[in-house]
Design goal:
The chain is α+β, with helices and mostly antiparallel strands. Helices cover 26% and strands 33% of the residues. Strands 1, 2, 3, 4, 5 and 6 form a six-stranded antiparallel sheet that branches. A hairpin with a 3-residue loop joins strand 3 and strand 4. The longest helix has 18 residues. The chain is globular and about 45 Å long. It starts with 7 loop residues before the first helix and ends in a 16-residue tail after the last helix.
Length: 167
Amino acid sequence: MAIQVPTVEQIRELPALLTTEVTDREIDDNGHMNVVHYLSNNIRAADILLRALGVDDNYRSERRVGLFTTEHHIAYHSELREGDSLSVHARIVDRGEKAVHMMTFLVDRGRARLSNTLEILLVHVDLDSRRSAPMPDDLALGLDELIAASGKLSWEAPVCGVMGIRR
């Protein structure tokens, strides 16, 4: 069964966390943005969202915990070329006591089309023991609010189906 991806209009129900243009340094030998830059832009947007929830340098240094990416799935839908404008939008899909499941959506703004998606599974980790650790209440609450907002969207997150929160 094919995954039904959202339209750009649907994706725009989520705020743009990052807006930028493709530079000549990001172009590969095929004349489009290299895969590393698709990934980098998606990760930057995810980081912006998580920092807004308080997962920043102070969070890591004072609480001695952080979020580690344990798995991701990236899918490409259309290419971006030099000078193209893009935006990245993020959605928290689910969370458990120690993990977060989220997606980012990279939009080709000029052509109003989805360029790629990144599905990410993160684990909350004690930075001293290097083991998974429960999230503090304030982070859990912030994630729950975003999950509730995600549930009100007009479209389902196009998850790959092989990753997610274990129950």
